Amino acid sequence: MSTAPATPRASAWADTAILTGRGLLLMARSPATVTMTAAFPVILLLLLSVSFAEIVMPGGSYADYVNYSVPLFAAMGITFATLSTANAVHADRIAGFDDRLRTLPLSPVAPLAGRIIADTARNLATVAIVTGVGMALGFRFENGLLGIVAYFVVPLLYGFGLAWLMVAVALHAASAESANAALNALLLVLSFLSTGFVRLADLPGWAQPIASANPISHVVDAMRAFAHGGSAGDHLLAVAAWAVGLTAVFGTLAVRRYARRG
């Protein structure tokens, strides 16, 4: 009596590793993707630092404001780069790549998590490029090696959580254009209503509670503390809470949506 061969079972970890490798390979074949992602925050760093330096720090040097603002532009680079993650997920859906994946015994988490993890490498490159340009303008690390490591880890943690929000929106959106329009507006508000450009006390009274709760504020303040010294504990906990919350809520919504489409 013959028996039917057992159906292979999906392994979330193995499948995610394979699709992460695919994402990294695509990125290596298109280095312009990393370059263009970093170009936006670098241009902002060069232009806005000149505009805001004397206003935010009257009497201070240009290098003082660069030390203050570089973490913001690194965080903004990651923030807007997550739009590319959303667009790539949407493109895979439209191009039929997802349909081919559905013919395999594949975990529904893997295509999304693999894309986000691979894009974390791009985010690391973005932070490194923005910081490197900032160092040419006067940015300096003053808190030792562990401070430097933590400076890079904090925005990556934030970017991982935010990417799940972007992916969830991309999977529910009718078109890439509608998703981008809604998300761009949200990201601009988050960027400017934060402590990135100016100190909390210099913001209007109505904006201060928003800036205090804004995850970008906690990201940039933690990065400043790790780079130059100071207390980062509360900001680090806030960043971790945002990352875990976004991943848990929007990761669940995204995976359910992806599986339901199957």
From TrEMBL:
Residues 32-261 form the ABC transmembrane type-2 domain. Belongs to the ABC-2 integral membrane protein family. GO terms for biological process: response to antibiotic. It comes from Aeromicrobium piscarium. GO terms for cellular component: ATP-binding cassette (ABC) transporter complex. This is Transport permease protein. The chain crosses the membrane at residues 32-53, 65-83, 121-139, 145-169, 181-201, 236-255. Pfam families: ABC2_membrane (PF01061).
